[in-house]
């Protein structure tokens, strides 16, 4: 039996995985005990990796739409079609070509996403889009505006953990395990979440704020900490800018006022503030989307960063830490396109911070651009590792918009909902069939790198990296893409580190820790902000006309901002709850996972169930002013009354038929997917 050590590619955690083969076929997978991030953990998704690999419905060859059906074609034919259309579009306007990629592409490490952007820039288009248009960029931008660099929580070494809008049992088991271990060692645990999650049941304190009011709650915690002088006075004096303005600003968020906004009792706010500020080191473990997808998304992330800083919990073990990145050759954009990306004009902070460009447009504007042709038309799209028809808001509009393209190419493992709209569908390799660099564990606070290895040959399925390299060659871009294979690109990226694919395969198949955490870096280097300090008051935001201090902004459909709509839609809808078995729209066709969780459900409180005459397991309709879906009710004390919680990614009950892509956060353009108004009713059988 052959053993291959690799990393899972089914969610951002990329847990270590031992893969066992007999006769070239995978017979077993298990967690890798020596992996410093996952430490032997492997969730049901990872355990089902072989089912995914050998699934009979996987695409095997490129398909072209013809006469209302599909015709099998070769890769050469598919590439010829794409190259011909690219040449035609470039003659008209290169900006009319766009790409959108999802999490599977982002999980290929620093290589593939950068290579895609490089291709577009050489071609002359700035229009690269990714899932960060509504995920993760918000927190990244909030922390960078405040610190100049990204930091991450270190719950393992903390004495007080504030878990905010995050259910890691379902989305991040390595973090859940670290939190539980810290609590067993005596750490205090505070959970802020409208839902009583598994960790909330273990917590010392659990607050349930109204969805969309997180920023007000954060500011109220600051008000208590500052007014009671519980902050770190020395750190604030030496290493922050704008404290006096912050102190004055938060006076408007005293607990009694915050109670009106958040529905959290004032005394509970004081209790949390005191517990967090007086048990150091402490850290805030923030959910990826729960604070982001509201009108105050960026401001909430800024508030988290500020709260962490003023309490002196920055660059210390158990607080916020920064793991050094692996030294790499960047695949830089060799030329810059002349035009601006979609959304760059409206949301410059989304596009870049402190002269660092992220190189992507804001995809939430894309459906309207496709329909209107303004500010300029988009006519050709390549979508990879993404299923926008289920995962982007306002699914009906997304479908109509994509249908306006002259050529839509979708690269995917299965015939997804989006692929069914395409003109050309390309079969994609799974993570077990491609070589990639898992070089992003530093984002979780672990300076570690591992090679995700090609365990089996992909046959006719291609990796994204292979596709873009071949497309570049056929476009005549060899001067900008001198690499002859995927392995050559990865070895080029690794050069400054002294590592190679061969070394990470033969000598260190389990990966390696390449550095250590540096604490109190700011004492010698300062902060990479314009002031060199933690920017509590952001001149960068002020100069661009945004709130320089975190400020609560109500989502467009909140009970406070839209009371007339509340009479018709009296409940708060929050969408996108994570489920351990699935990731976004993926894996619902995997038998073992579908058996564990066979259908979606809407979570409602018993008080609401009684009011609307709904029993547990009964079919209900959930409606917003945009649409209606039907699914079963799960009646549970765990979710606060007045809130309806929905998962996403289910084609039979698509929550994005209820949502809207209209930007709610004026700084980044994020939509409000977690604080909308809805109504429910029992569906008569």
Question: What does this 3D model show about the protein?
Answer:
This protein has 685 residues and is an alpha/beta fold. The protein is 31% helix and 18% strand. The protein has a seven-stranded mixed sheet with strand order 5-4-19-18-17-6-7. Strands 25-27-26-29-24-28 form a six-stranded mixed sheet. Helix 9 (214-227) packs antiparallel against helix 12 and helix 9 runs parallel beside helix 14 (297-310). It is globular and about 70 Å long. The termini are far apart. The model has no long low-confidence stretch (mean pLDDT 96).
In short:
The chain has 26 helices and 29 strands.
List the keywords.
685 residues, alpha/beta, 26 helices, 31% helix, globular
Spatial ordering of strands, largest sheet: 5-4-19-18-17-6-7
The value of Rg in angstroms is 25 Å
Rounded to the nearest angstrom, the distance between the terminal CA atoms is 54 Å
Major sheet: 7 strands, mixed
Which structural class should the secondary elements be placed in?
A: alpha/beta
- Give the amount of beta strand, in percent: 15-25%
